[in-house]
Amino acid sequence: MTNRSRHRAARRSILSPRVRTVVLEFLITAGILFLIVTTARWIFAPDAPLGSVLRGRAAFVALGVFFGVVNTVIIHYSMSRRTAGHMNPSVSIGLWLLRVFPGRDVLPFCVAQMTGAVAGVGLARLVWGADVGVPQVGWAAVAPQPDWGFWGVLTAETVAQLICMTAVAALLIRPRWEWLIPGVVGLCITGFIMILGPMSGGSVNPARQFGPALWAGNFGFLTAYLIGPVLGAALAAGLAAALRPPLLPAVVDPPVVPAAPPAPATPPAPPAMAVDPLAVACTTVGATEGTVCPDTIPPELLRDDPHRI
Predict the structure, then answer these.
(1) Residue 224 has pLDDT above 60, yes or no
(2) How far apart are CA 276 and CA 58, in angstroms?
(3) Whole-number Å distance between alpha carbons of 123 and 30
(4) How confident is the model over 262-273, as pLDDT tens digits?
(5) How far apart, in Å, are the Cα atoms of 274 and each of 266, 269, 277?
(6) Could you give the angle at which helices 206-216 and 17-44 cross, rounded to 10 degrees?
């Protein structure tokens, strides 16, 4: 065993599988937020080289496609390894309500995701400097258009997550279709960024907005961005439970009781016939020796024979 293998085995022995999964969730969420801030800096900053190419809605289309693919890859890897990869507190809560994620891991995952989002934005600030805080970038915090109020943002976030989690729930109840989940979630994320991004912000992830908003000190509509996705995930879980076909009661076969052996049937009485005196003589004690008995004896004379079948 090499030194690297020994060090890796030692780390695994120190951290339990549950702790390793939570730490991985923190790292993945931090990485995705770092990418979000990085792309915002290189698209929306005044000196960004991509700013002259991606303008207006084209920028949201490019961001939607990019992060849709990134999330698809991460979720596919996570499902194949059965590890972390939610990156979204509302997803963890929704999967718990769908009874496919343990309840004891919901709080650790949500904490890891929220703190990972803050760490990811901080890493982007460390790498790219003050450019991530200019008004055009704004730490990559999303914001609605001026004509969007609190209830409009809350409704958009709720409906968006309701659609996504309902699609996930529909695939989860059919095991042979689970492999479609990464692609479906990726398409949903692409659509949210492309359609809702220029309108309501299109966060649909409490952690995605929490980290940038905390660094930017911009808490406008933060409550809507935090509550909306969780509410949508809860509604999706309730809808899935209501539409799930009821389980049929198990049919239990009654115990097999061995049948009692049939009672020997009493042979029907033959029609009345004359008794042969010679036959009577053959069954009478003290019959004279040398009496010749007939070959057939009437059945009624043999009913008491215990050896007769």
Answers:
(1) yes
(2) 120
(3) 8
(4) 666 566 665 555
(5) 22, 14, 9
(6) 60
201 burial (CB, 10 Å; 0-12 / 13-18 / 19+) is buried
- Whose tokens are 């990085």? That residue is 38
Residue 86: predicted pLDDT: 92
Q: How many helices and strands, by DSSP H and E, does the chain display? A: 10, 0
The pTM (predicted TM-score) of the whole model is: 0.74
Q: What is the pLDDT of residues 157-170, one digit of tens each?
A: 999 999 999 999 99
CB 202 within 8 A of CB 59: no
pLDDT in tens, 74-114: 999 888 777 778 999 999 999 999 999 999 999 999 999 99
Q: Which residue's structure tokens are 């097999």? A: 256
The answer to whether 142 and 149 are in contact (CB under 8 A) is no
Burial class of residue 70, CB neighbours in 10 A (0-12, 13-18, 19+): middle
Between 77 and 228, residue with greater pLDDT: 228
CA distance 180 to 172: 10
Token couple for 308: 């007769």
**How many Cα neighbours within 13 Å face the side chain of 128?**
25
* DSSP characters over 45-87: STT-TTTTTS-THHHHHHHHHHHHHHHHHHHHHHHHHT-----
If DSSP codes are grouped into helix, strand and coil, which group holds residue 300?
helix
Integer Cα distance of 303 and 135 in angstroms: 115
**CA dist list (Å): 233 to 35, 46, 85:** 25, 37, 17
